[in-house]
Design a protein that fits this description.
By secondary structure, the chain is of the alpha+beta class. A hairpin with a 3-residue loop joins strand 9 and strand 10. Helix 1 runs antiparallel to helix 3. Strands 5-8-9-10-11 form a five-stranded antiparallel beta sheet. It has a two-stranded antiparallel sheet with strand order 1-2. The protein has a two-stranded antiparallel sheet with strand order 3-4.
């Protein structure tokens, strides 16, 4: 039996496995882009190639694990900058690269900032699979998780002045804000809020 050919996201270059395929406008799976780069038929971030390499280099550990490498963050970034021009997103003419952000990103940012939580102000969001950020919380004396491991969420992490961190995860229905130590321990739910899609409409 032939081995399945290794695929790579045509935006960030990460190995493209079935569990992290991006989604098209109609909800079908993209065969070219990962969910972190491409969701609902739009790119999730307005990046230059340099900015994309900076962002992707943060995940060098995951790359090393998947590819059996031992690259440093700097080495991985340089490798990406050499590789990116060969990928579909970056091989297009400069004026044709679709840099537009996902249309819902600013909606989620506005809702998060409107919560008025002290020291929580968001300027950007990224896409994560639930398994990456699905922490365990104590609710009514029981340990429980509030996210779906197999679902993609918009989110970010904001460090507070006291050294603790806010974690944000949201989808079209809810915004979850949690607080935890920098190593992820002692996680507490700050708020789980339903998104009102009428907010901001004129």
């Amino acid at each position: 039996m032939d081995k399945k050919e290794m695929r790579f996201c045509q935006s960030c270059g990460m190995p493209l496995t079935d569990d992290i395929l991006g989604t098209n406008t109609d909800g079908s799976k993209s065969e070219e882009f990962c969910i972190y780069c491409y969701k609902d038929g739009a790119f999730t971030g307005n990046y230059t190639m340099e900015e994309m390499a900076d962002y992707c280099s943060m995940f060098v550990d995951e790359y090393n694990k998947n590819m059996g490498k031992q690259l440093t963050k700097c080495e991985y970034k340089q490798q990406l900058l050499q590789w990116f021009p060969k990928l579909k997103r970056w091989s297009m003419p400069q004026d044709a690269i679709p840099h537009a952000d996902h249309p819902m990103k600013q909606v989620y940012i506005d809702h998060i900032n409107a919560l008025g939580i002290d020291e929580l102000h968001v300027n950007n969001l990224y896409v994560f699979m639930g398994a990456m950020v699905n922490q365990s919380y104590t609710v009514n004396g029981n340990n429980t998780k509030l996210l779906n491991d197999d679902e993609a969420y918009w989110g970010t992490q904001i460090q507070k002045s006291n050294g603790r961190c806010y974690g944000v995860a949201c989808n079209e229905k809810y915004i979850l804000v949690s607080e935890y130590n920098r190593d992820g321990s002692n996680a507490e739910v700050v708020t789980l809020t339903r998104i009102d899609h009428e907010v901001g409409k004129k």
